Amino acid sequence: MQLFLASYRFGAHRDRFLALAGDRRRIAVIANACDSWGEAARGSALTSDLAPLRRLGFDAHEIDLRDFVGGADDLRTALTDAGLVWVRGGNTFVLRAQLARTGGDRLLPQLISQGTIGYAGYSAGACVLTPSLRGLDAVDDPTEVEPTCGVEPIWTGLGLVAQAIVPHCDSDPDSAAVAQRYRRDGVAHWALTDDQVIVVDGGSPQLL
To answer: Tens digits of per-residue pLDDT, 14-39?
Structure first.
């Protein structure tokens, strides 16, 4: 299993991401955490991720989960063809709902665990892999899910890592307050600065 989970993009560990990517040059960008933002803002956010990946030499293209509702087999093919997935930040609850609507919440754990694809995600793209999204409603609004996705919010994550992730703890007071609440309540978590990343490369998670 290969994971690169960050607070913000590459953090201070771009070289570690490149090492994990290896020879794989095709990378699928999932920007559905931004689906509640409106198309102009969403498009700008997508471009802001495609551009740096392309400058690094990747063949970066979007997989829009909205195109795969009811099409899990097609989504499996698209993810497998890419080999690497990059999942950007936004609203964690919206991203979780879009994954559920497409079967991506079943496909990603399978493909990642089998080593078929590598996964890189930051902010919401990292948080969605945790066991539970409880507490993140202090920073992401779950009421955006129903008007955007047509379903109720889902409070469980994909469970590919064993504890919660709180990004932006050095740049967002609300995130820092979530980490403080987790500490008070005994919730196991990683509190990430925007420089820090969690890397899994066939073994246990490493906080860098």
So the answer is: 999 999 999 999 999 999 999 999 99
Give first-to-last CA distance, the chain, whole Å.
17
Give CA angle at 70 (66, 72), nearest 5°. Answer: 90
For residues 96, 101, 107, 112, the Cα torsion angle rounded to the nearest 10 degrees is -20
* Per-residue pLDDT at 70: 86
Across-strand partners of 179? none
Domain boundary assignment for the chain: 2-207
DSSP-assigned letters across all residues of 99-136? HHHHTHHHHHHHHHHTTSSEEEEETHHHHTTSSB-TTG
What's the topology of domain 2-207? Answer: Rossmann fold (3.40.50)
Cα–Cα distances (Å) from 118 to 84, 138, 146, 147, in that order, read: 5, 29, 30, 31
In the predicted model, residues of the chain with pLDDT beneath 50 are none
The pLDDT assigned to 53 comes to 97
